[in-house]
C-alpha cells in the first residue's frame, strides 16, 4: 500500500488511498470478491475527497446501523491488501454507537495522498463478533497479502464461520489519486493535436493549440494574387457576373467616372462631336435671344 502517506508525529509512512464514490450495498461484489447475504444489518463508508491530489489530507467516514460492532477497514491498491483499522495507533476497533466515525480518529497521525496515481478501494467489514483472521499482524498497518483474490477467499471463509451467531455487513468506496499539478488534456488514442482540435493520426490539426483559426493572407504583391484573380474572374464569367461586376465598379468607383473637360479656348476650332450638348446638362436646347428693354417681344405685344 503506497498511495496514502500517513504522517505520524512528523514521520511519513505510506499507506495508500484516493477519492470517493457511493458505497456498495450488501450482496454486491467487492474488490475482494466477498459476498454477504443482504440483511437488516448494514455498513456504510465514504471518504472526504472525491478526488485526492498528492499532498492533500483525506479522511474516511464509516458507520453501521446497529451497535455494538467491530469495524475492519481495508485498503485495496493493485495487488496489495492493507488493513487500516485496527492499526498500531488505533488498536481498538469496537464501536458502541451507530454514529459516523472518522479515520484517523486521533490526532497523532494523518492520511496524506501520495503517488502512484490511479484507482483504489477502501472497504469496511462490520461484524457483531470479532473476526480472528482480521486481527493481529505486524507493522503500523498490517499487510494482509499481495493477492486480493486469495485474501478475499480467506476473509469469506472466516465470515462464514461466524455467520450462524454473528451479523456481518460490508461496503466499499471507490477512490482516485491524481497529480498535484494540473495535467493538460490529451487526445484519444489514434488522434493527434490538442483537445478539442483532435484529428486522426498523420493529419495536421485544422487549428493550432492556441485555438486561433489558421488563415492564409494573400496580398496584391504575393505570387498567388494574380493566379487567384484569374480564377475568380473565370468563375464570374462562367456565371455571367463578370460584366455586371465591371459595370457596378464603374458606377461606384470615383476613378471610373468621366472627368469634366474644360471649355475650349475661343481661338481654337473645336469639332461639334467633342462638344457636350446643353441638354445633357439639364438645360433647354432652344436658343435664347438677348434683347434690350426697348426691343419688342418676338411674339409681339398685345
From TrEMBL:
<dbReference type="Pfam" id="PF14326">
    <property type="entry name" value="DUF4384"/>
</dbReference>
<dbReference type="InterPro" id="IPR025493">
    <property type="entry name" value="DUF4384"/>
</dbReference>
<feature type="region of interest" description="Disordered">
    <location>
        <begin position="182"/>
        <end position="210"/>
    </location>
</feature>
<protein>
    <recommendedName>
        <fullName>DUF4384 domain-containing protein</fullName>
    </recommendedName>
</protein>
<feature type="compositionally biased region" description="Polar residues">
    <location>
        <begin position="267"/>
        <end position="283"/>
    </location>
</feature>
<feature type="region of interest" description="Disordered">
    <location>
        <begin position="247"/>
        <end position="302"/>
    </location>
</feature>
<feature type="domain" description="DUF4384">
    <location>
        <begin position="53"/>
        <end position="129"/>
    </location>
</feature>
Amino acid at each position: 500500500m503506497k498511495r496514502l502517506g500517513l504522517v505520524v508525529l512528523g514521520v511519513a509512512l505510506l499507506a495508500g488511498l484516493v477519492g470517493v464514490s457511493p458505497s456498495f450495498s450488501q450482496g454486491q461484489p467487492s474488490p475482494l470478491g466477498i459476498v454477504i447475504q443482504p440483511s437488516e444489518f448494514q455498513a456504510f463508508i465514504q471518504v472526504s475527497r472525491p478526488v485526492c491530489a498528492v499532498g492533500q489530507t483525506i479522511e474516511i467516514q464509516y458507520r453501521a446501523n446497529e451497535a455494538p460492532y467491530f469495524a475492519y477497514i481495508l485498503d485495496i491498491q493493485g495487488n496489495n491488501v492493507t488493513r487500516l483499522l485496527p492499526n498500531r495507533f488505533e488498536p481498538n476497533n469496537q464501536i458502541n454507537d451507530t454514529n459516523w466515525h472518522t479515520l484517523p480518529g486521533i490526532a497523532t497521525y494523518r492520511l496524506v495522498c501520495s503517488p502512484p496515481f490511479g484507482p483504489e478501494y477502501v472497504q469496511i467489514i462490520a461484524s457483531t463478533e470479532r473476526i480472528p483472521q482480521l486481527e493481529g499482524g505486524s507493522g503500523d498497518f498490517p499487510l494482509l497479502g499481495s493477492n486480493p483474490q486469495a485474501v478475499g477467499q480467506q476473509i469469506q471463509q472466516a465470515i462464514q464461520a461466524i455467520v450462524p451467531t454473528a451479523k456481518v455487513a460490508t461496503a466499499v468506496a471507490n477512490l482516485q489519486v491524481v497529480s498535484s499539478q494540473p495535467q493538460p488534456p490529451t487526445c484519444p488514442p489514434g488522434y493527434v493535436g490538442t483537445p478539442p482540435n483532435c484529428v486522426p493520426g498523420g493529419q495536421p490539426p485544422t487549428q493550432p493549440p492556441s485555438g486561433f483559426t489558421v488563415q492564409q493572407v494573400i496580398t496584391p504583391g504575393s505570387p498567388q494574387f494574380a493566379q487567384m484573380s484569374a480564377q475568380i474572374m473565370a468563375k464570374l464569367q462562367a456565371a455571367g457576373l463578370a460584366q455586371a461586376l465591371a459595370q457596378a465598379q464603374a458606377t461606384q468607383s470615383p476613378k471610373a467616372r468621366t472627368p469634366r473637360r474644360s471649355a475650349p479656348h475661343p481661338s481654337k476650332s473645336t469639332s461639334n462631336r467633342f462638344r457636350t450638348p446643353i441638354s445633357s446638362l439639364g438645360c433647354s436646347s432652344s436658343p435664347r435671344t438677348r434683347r434690350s428693354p426697348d426691343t419688342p417681344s418676338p411674339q409681339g405685344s398685345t
